[in-house]
UniProtKB/TrEMBL annotation:
It comes from Yeosuana aromativorans. GO terms for molecular function: serine-type carboxypeptidase activity. Coiled coil: none annotated. Keywords: Carboxypeptidase, Glycoprotein, Hydrolase, Protease, Signal. GO terms for biological process: proteolysis. The lineage of its organism: Bacteria, Pseudomonadati, Bacteroidota, Flavobacteriia, Flavobacteriales. This is Carboxypeptidase. InterPro entries: AB_hydrolase_fold, Peptidase_S10, Ser_caboxypep_ser_AS. Signal peptide: none annotated. Pfam families: Peptidase_S10.
Length: 494
């Protein structure tokens, strides 16, 4: 059910790209709705709008599109507020917005595959029953854009497109938003998917140290830690072995001794081998003995579903992209997906080291793109001719001076309330679940805060919530995390 309450447009309208298509820099559309969550009818308002980013002179240099959901008739003072980001970098917030935590969910099949007619339906698993949520599109994603000055010049791209600049301007924007909706008293959480994991690790410290906004929780969904991701460090490839095992198990290509066990019964063994044996072997590089190299290749083949020849030809350092191409090469000739290896693709040739395309991403865009455009326009009543960027132009992206892992440690050390939840899919080959565990282990080398971390794994991929069973479980895990990270009236002290 939806009722349009109010449409407010500010007088000033700014040009946001060279075609002179315009979007209001500061505007909101308010609608009212109901949804049944956990057998309880929830009434809420949705605000779809834009809010400026200002420079040090107080001039608008960008406008960010957001969607804010606020439950009616509840005590806002004690009600959690969650800021939600996706990743990329350069990805809009649509993914978690209309498939995970929001009050609407994609029209897809129970395993996450697109079906027609495209669109959305009520999400009985939304976390709106326990928290209000704002979905934020960083600059050049969604409807968010840079704003030209009076001379028609756009701001320097480095203001937005880099690990540290992204964190800085988003934290300032969040401060303004909290003031506008009067939520300074509320417990606050930030959730980030994929690159959003890097983003929220950095935001935790930036919000607390520069905006004096303290958090109760950080949630990382399939996080991409750039201390690991794309570093080309051979020892880190060992962290992919448990993912190889999970994917091979799913496609039923493991040796019977493994295949006949449940996935969760075999993964701890593989995780231990990856750290205790494979990582040290890779560290030896070309100076590993022939005997040890053969032994390791045999075991990696056993755990991965690949041939010993393939493992040896890659010098034990098997790239994930090769795995996606090779796992089923001599079986069905199909490739497996990068972000979700349950998905299958068909390449022009079976030869080669890399798949031609990502079958999971094409399937997801198939379902998400029409749905988010329809939903924002027709149900949230936000109208614009600006293109909704599922992926926007944010490159080159400055990855230098990445201190986000330590930023999270600092934020946790300085805030005894702050806890962390990490959620990963076992079949995610881009941001592997064991890589996420490794990041969790490395944030606090002292081990003094390890009881404030929680890891949850799911039998799906990068967007575990696209599988109906995991959507139910993962949202309940967030509910449990919110309850466990509530202050319960206790003081923030050690």
């Amino acid at each position: 059910m939806k009722k349009i309450l109010l449409i407010v447009f500010c007088i000033s309208v700014y040009s946001v790209n060279s075609q002179n298509i315009k979007i209001p820099a500061d505007t909101s559309v308010v609608t009212t709705h109901t949804v049944t969550i956990k057998n309880q009818l929830i009434s809420y308002k949705a605000i779809a709008g834009t809010q400026p980013v200002w420079n040090e002179k107080g001039e608008p240099i960008a406008t960010l599109f957001y969607t804010y959901y606020e439950r009616d008739k509840v005590d806002k003072k004690n009600r959690p507020l969650i800021f939600s980001f996706n990743g990329g970098p350069g990805s809009a917030s649509a993914w978690m917005h209309i498939a995970y935590t929001g009050p609407k969910v994609l029209n897809i099949d129970p395993e996450g595959y697109p079906i027609q007619p495209y669109g959305v339906e009520d999400n009985p698993n939304s976390i709106l029953d326990v928290a209000d949520i704002v979905y934020i599109d960083p600059v050049n994603t969604g409807y968010s854009r840079m704003i030209a000055d009076k001379d028609g010049k756009l701001p320097d791209r480095s203001t937005f497109f880099g690990i540290n600049s992204d964190i800085k301007y988003l934290a300032g924007w969040m401060n303004t938003f909290v003031s506008r909706v009067n939520r300074w008293q509320s417990p606050k959480y930030i959730i980030g998917e994929s690159y959003g994991g890097t983003r929220v690790m950095g935001l935790a410290n930036e919000l607390q140290s520069s905006q004096w906004m303290y958090l109760n929780g950080v949630i990382m969904v399939s996080p991409a830690d750039y201390k690991l991701y794309n570093t080309n460090q051979p020892v880190y490839s060992a962290l992919s072995l448990p993912y190889f095992t999970a994917t091979a198990w799913y496609h039923k290509v493991l040796p019977p001794a493994l295949q006949n066990q449940d996935l969760l019964d075999i993964l701890p063994e593989v995780e231990d081998y990856a750290i205790q044996k494979l990582m040290p072997a890779l560290a030896q590089g070309g100076f590993i003995s022939d005997d040890e190299k053969q032994q390791v290749a045999k075991q990696v083949a056993y755990y991965s579903g690949l041939s010993e020849t393939s493992v040896l030809q890659n010098n034990l350092n098997v790239p994930n992209s090769f795995f996606w191409k090779d796992l089923l090469r001599n079986k069905t000739g199909q490739t497996v997906g990068r972000l979700d290896s349950r998905y299958l693709g068909i390449d022009k040739t079976e030869a080669g080291d890399n798949p031609d395309f990502n079958p999971e991403l094409t399937a997801w865009l198939h379902a998400f793109t029409p749905a988010i455009n329809y939903y924002i326009s027709e149900q949230l009543n936000f109208k614009t001719d600006i293109k909704y960027n599922m992926f926007g132009d944010v490159h080159p992206w400055d990855n230098r001076n990445d201190n986000t892992r330590d930023d999270l440690r600092k934020a946790m050390a300085q805030n005894p309330y702050l806890k962390v939840l990490i959620q990963s899919g076992y079949y995610d080959g881009a941001c592997t679940y064991f890589g996420a565990k490794y990041t969790m282990h490395q944030v606090d080398p002292s081990g003094k805060m390890k009881d404030r971390f929680t890891f949850k794994g799911y039998r799906s991929g990068h967007m575990m919530y696209l599988r109906k069973e995991d959507l139910h479980t993962a949202t309940d895990d967030i509910r449990e995390f919110i309850i466990s990270s509530s202050s319960k009236g206790n003081p923030a002290k050690y």
